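Protein 1 of 2
SEQ + STRUCT:
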Amino acid sequence: MNDKSKTHKFHITNFLKSPASLAILINLIILVLALVFCNIKYEVSDDYIVDSVISGAYTQKSIGYYDVHLLFSNILLGYPLKILYTLIPGISWYFVFIIGLSFVALTALTYVFIKRYGMGIFTYVYLIFLTYFSADLYVIPQFTKTSVAAAVAGGVLFISGLFSEQKKGRIINIILGSLIAILGIFLRFQAIFIALPFLFILFIFYSISSIKKSSFSSELKKIIIRFAACLFLIGIAYAGKYINKALWSRQSSYDNFRNYATLRSDITDVSFLGYDSVKEDFEAIGLNETDYLMFRSWCFMDRNVYDDATLSNVHKILKNASDKVTHNVNYLGENLLTRDYMRYRVCWGIFIIFVIMTILCPSGFAYYIISMLVALAGLLYFSWVGRVVYRVEYTIFISCAIVIMLCGNQVKDIPKQLKKAIKYISLTALLIQAFAFIPDSASKRTDEEYSQNIYDSLISSGSYNVKKYHTNVYDRQLYADFLRYVENNDDKYFVMDFSSSIQIMYFNYKPWERIPMGFFNENYMHFGSVTMQYPAEKQLLIDHGLDPNSPIKDLVNDDIYLVDNYYSDVKLRFIQKYYYPNARKELVDIVNGLYIWKIKKQ
């Protein structure tokens, strides 16, 4: 072997010995496999709408602009994203950020895991974790899932740095951990409330481990300093929240939107239990079943009828009705059973990790149980408030799995037979899970079957469905005939009911491609989404002759057409009740199963 070959081999060996290099390599392979072989799509339409906002899709094409006011995230993230959109406008940098932050979070976790356990039998534990939990971050990404994953991963790297006995790299770990955690919290501030309980368990574990290695008296001061460092990091997160609020408040139009969005989400995030549950209270404030259904369908954007005081009263009524049902021990138990967690692949991932870690590191059993009890408490809390959706459940489960993996200790003497058993169990579990990500064969389906399969698999964004991971949404354009119909009728403007359109139609647009500037100013818009009262949308409505404070009443305008499969009667009754008693509707056409209506005054 010549000197060049020896040098080359030496560099490769050193690379494979480096926990950081190995962590990057492992996660890079998984990311590339996901990008090449999986059908990546946003799990929820919220990310598509956020991307539309920052891309300027609601603005006029001729005077369009990128908007840094991210709907659910800190505006401080919007500024660097705006620069990237300006420099390279063809890419959805919001999507790149979501995937990139997930990659960095998983890489940080891998690094800490390898530093703690090395690359022996414990490698299978982490590969199971990556296989069972990375799909939700890469294949069906959603900002809530990414934010909590990053907050926990950053917190893990930060805490491991605080307790590290090796000076080399310690400061880097603390700084990088802080940055990852803050980015996760900036993506969605509420992530902090899910991440902190699990990180506190990890902090206690590291503290007790350090005391065992030394003594309580010698470690106490260090632990207090480390805890103070954690509080300082939390303080930075809260400072970011207040800076975000101040930046939003600079312009009254954005401040008004933010206040209205809070009122809107207070209503939409409450469980609707049927009109009978609120009938008396609704009638007491002058509302009836038509109004209830307007709220139920998220189409209550008439500020002349539903002013802020009315919205606040409606929230209280709905919340009280919901609390009467959800604040019940029997309901909590039934809800946990009906969620059927045994179907969830991530729950199987936790179970396998728990079993292997219990066998390899029985000393950490108490921490594993505590972590699972905290996860159970989180599930019960969200059931209690009536807000159980899969993306929130996932954040609890991944946090639990991370704590279980990291609360063990190194074990040197493991019987060969046990190693072999763990190896075979792990490989079997990995193979079973890997097949869930392979896209289905959509080409064999008719257009109707293709659309129906996507609808059945993905319409319920708040529920778990294993089909979400492998449903192919890019084989052909959904609602192609309808989109051509809209383009060919450029003298008309189509207002699309949110429930009838957005939950499926956004799959027409690949998440890595930027939504064109001025996109919704051309032929259609989604009615009743999270952008209600958003400044650019208000201007868009004005441009098309619709009153931004009462756009529903202007559905009677000659060039405005309603696309609605579910709530056209409700909208008509609303118009009849508050504006035009003799209003009526006519079915204009049905294209790709979408009903197109014309509302007339009489």
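Protein 2 of 2
SEQ + STRUCT:
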Amino acid sequence: MDSLPLSDWYSNITGSCGSSNVSYGLKLREIPDQVINFWSSLHPAFPIRNWENVDSWVYWPIIGVLTLCITYITSTVQFHKVMNSNTHGTLREVPVVSYWVPGLFHAFAFLDPARFLLKIQKTFESDTPLQLKAGPSRFFLYRNSEHIKAVFRASKRTTNKSTTLFALRNLFDLPKSAVQLFQEDDSGTGLRPRKESKTSPENRINYLVTHTSREFLSSDYLEDMNRRYMSILLRHLDTFDVQSEWVEFSDLHEFIQQATIRPSVEALVGSEFFKLNPEFDKDLFIFQHYIPDFLHLLPRWLIPTAYRVRRRLLQSIKRWHQHAHNHYDCSRYGPEDPNWEPYFGSKLMRAREHYSLKISKMTPDARATEDLGLIFVATINVVTSIFWFVFEALKDSKLLARLDKEILMSSTKGRTEPDIKGLTSQPLLQSTYAEVLRLYSALVVSRVAEYGDIQVADYHIPKDGYIIMYSRSSALDHQAWERAGRTLKKSLEEFDAERFLVDPDWVRPSLSGVHDKKAPTEDPNTTLSKKRFTLDGLLGLWYPYGGGDRICPGRHFAKHQMMLTFAMLLAKFDFELTGTDTSKVLPNMRFAPFGVLPPNGKIPFRMRRKASI
């Protein structure tokens, strides 16, 4: 019934184009005539019958509203048609969620992607993937945990190049020549290039970035990185003018930033960096505030401060590059070379600089952008996670005491010399770490079918289609967590430091949904010391680092940084929250879905240096 009037409108328009006897204004009036006639046929009580007497300023808005309504009705019918047809056949089509505006589809909703994706999760109870569109771009939202696992398993048939480039270009200002380099690289990220690839070995930028990060953030270098970071952190904490008397501070988040950004950056890029750029950390704090604005593509004239700060950050990186090259050879990152030196810092930074110098399109500006991006993702999310770790412990004195007990168990040589392996293996510390990332991170993990049509979890994904998964939707999916065999003592909207602890004999439910004998129950008499930490069964529900072949290579170092920093802060200082209604401290959703969410306001506290360590 809908298609006939639409066809009539088009035939009336095209059929009258050649007529010289009818004025252009009359031709346009034929369009609303057809709409009104159609709408009147559906609604006999439709109020406007004498359409020729209606002024143009009235009927054009009516035409617009009716067009939106008809679009929504037809798209809803089509949505349910596809949903019902997916019960037949093996390869299924992903239904398009109903929309109002033809051509733009869901584009306006994507202006607030976090709210839109959560609304989708609440509106559609079915686990079927859903298709969202913004102009020509097509997004396939996967929500079911088993489907998300399938997406991660399909990583070799997808890329995340487009989304990475979006961030590099719009957040860090990657030059167009380097953007072209990344785009033209069709070789993949594997050791061997794709058979269809035409990219020369030296220009395999996506492989070089991925491979270098995996190699130099691996377990072979992790222990040295942990020790280096802890040493720098302890030295930096001694610079704070806090003695045995209580000192008031206005904001815990700001203090954590001041305490941890410099050690994080120095452990990565060397001690010479802050000698050249003493204000870099302050600029990084300011830059963090404007992340949503950059990623929402706000122009320079609306946020001039943000663009100025970004320019200063890039100039700082270029200044450091030049200074480091004047004093050290970046090609020295072999087995016999030091893991860390003061000019380039870690082997990771030397290796990145070495391969970049061989690529003509990796200009000094491009190299600065790439390294700013690495420094940013290696610090900001971790630092904000450390804040939430400390804040949640300070909120609950019993939790703080239990965490401190685990730290002491790992500190046989003294509180500032913990056994790092033992510390990062403690069950409650690990569970608290995992819960912080579950509740306070909100990111869209994406994959792109770059090389052709693919099939993921029995659904068809066309070439250049974006597969997206929203971590916060998964983190708050009560039914899915219960299916995974987890007992929810507290709502998923609340913080529960023990959420990832299970009884010693706990086993995950089978994929068929039949639980093993002791999987769904928990013994209330099991003491904390006997419980163990596990992420079993949660791959499609807990993925703050992504998953599959493209999982974050720095995840182990990030985990250790969080725990080490918490342990060293407790070793050096006593903390107390002051005058804060902790129930009002919430994550700032303005920063969703771009990573770990900062708090929505300032959290006053006081601290004093411990009398003895």
